[in-house]
């Protein structure tokens, strides 16, 4: 029988704690594929967050460190400065990165730290039962916004790529999604570009990935993908927001 696909070696073959339909498994597989394709497993260091991906080190067979809630960019900064020859990335959700860790994110970008941040945005706190996150859409119902997010009561959703595009130290910023095979391939290329930015010592890069959370969106898996395409991308349009290659030319 012809083998059409084999799991990447960097992806540990084990059951995960992720809910059915969650996007984290897809994103982590893409990271593992890139590491295998480039042969950099021994040169890569990942930072796990506090959030749904808190156990990412159980799934990626690379050197990894756990950081306090929201602090992966700060820890990644220290690791990268001590090991400038390593590829260092943080893997974070919207609660970790855009709430308690927003200062660390902005200041790492502002300093132009030569690290890569992979940011999974599912617009909700998934680990702690579905509370409203900084990225929750206007009108979106959550455990703590049962009538829908209101701009007057809760403020507006934070657009991280757009925000960091105004910071001079940031070099590469792109928002992608994983709602189709085509979009998954684009997400993989964006992660590659983020890693390339670091390898060429161009500074701070962040790839934002719109991911589904069917359980706390209270939707089916197919419906949640449709929600990203039809609703979420209105607030968070896909695309490149900053690219050092284009700036250089």
Characteristic terms for this protein:
18% strand, seven-stranded mixed β-sheet, 38% helix, alpha/beta, Rossmann fold, two-stranded antiparallel ribbon
If you had to describe this structure to a student in words, what would you say it looks like?
This protein has 249 residues and is an alpha/beta fold. It has one domain: Thiamin diphosphate (ThDP)-binding fold, Pyr/PP domains (Rossmann fold). It has helices at 24-38, 72-82, 94-100, 102-110, 151-154, 160-164, 181-199, 214-217, 221-235, 244-248, and strands at residues 44-48, 63-66, 87-93, 116-121, 124-125, 131-132, 170-177, 204-210, 239-243. The strands form two sheets. Strands 2-1-3-4-8-7-9 form a seven-stranded mixed beta sheet, sandwiched between helices. Strand 7 (170-177), helix 7 (181-199) and strand 8 (204-210) form a beta-alpha-beta unit. The model has no long low-confidence stretch (mean pLDDT 95).
Map the helices and strands.
Layout: H1 24-38, E1 44-48, E2 63-66, H2 72-82, E3 87-93, H3 94-100, H4 102-110, E4 116-121, E5 124-125, E6 131-132, H5 151-154, H6 160-164, E7 170-177, H7 181-199, E8 204-210, H8 214-217, H9 221-235, E9 239-243, H10 244-248
Parallel strand pairs: 1-2, 1-3, 3-4, 4-8, 7-8
Antiparallel strand pairs: 5-6, 7-9
């Amino acid at each position: 029988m012809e083998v059409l696909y084999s799991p990447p070696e960097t992806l540990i073959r084990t059951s995960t704690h992720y809910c059915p339909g969650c996007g984290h498994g897809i994103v982590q597989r893409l990271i593992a594929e890139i590491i295998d394709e480039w042969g950099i497993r021994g040169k890569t260091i990942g930072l796990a967050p506090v959030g749904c991906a808190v156990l990412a080190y159980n799934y990626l067979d690379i050197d990894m460190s756990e950081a306090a809630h929201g602090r992966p960019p700060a820890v990644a900064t220290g690791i990268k400065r001590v090991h400038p020859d390593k590829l260092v990335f943080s893997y974070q959700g919207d609660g970790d990165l855009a709430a308690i860790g927003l200062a660390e994110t902005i200041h790492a970008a502002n300093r132009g730290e030569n690290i890569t941040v992979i940011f999974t945005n599912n617009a909700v706190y998934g680990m702690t039962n579905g509370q409203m996150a900084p990225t929750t859409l206007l009108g979106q119902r959550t455990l703590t916004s049962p009538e829908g997010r209101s701009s007057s009561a809760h403020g507006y959703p934070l657009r991280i790529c757009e925000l960091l595009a105004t910071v001079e130290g940031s070099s590469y910023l792109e928002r992608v999604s994983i709602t189709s095979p085509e979009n998954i391939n684009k997400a993989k290329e964006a992660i590659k570009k983020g890693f390339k930015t670091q390898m060429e010592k161009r500074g701070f890069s962040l790839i934002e990935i719109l991911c589904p959370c069917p359980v706390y969106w209270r939707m089916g898996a197919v419906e949640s993908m449709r929600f990203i395409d039809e609703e979420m991308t209105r607030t968070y349009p896909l695309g490149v927001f900053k690219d050092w290659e284009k700036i250089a030319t």
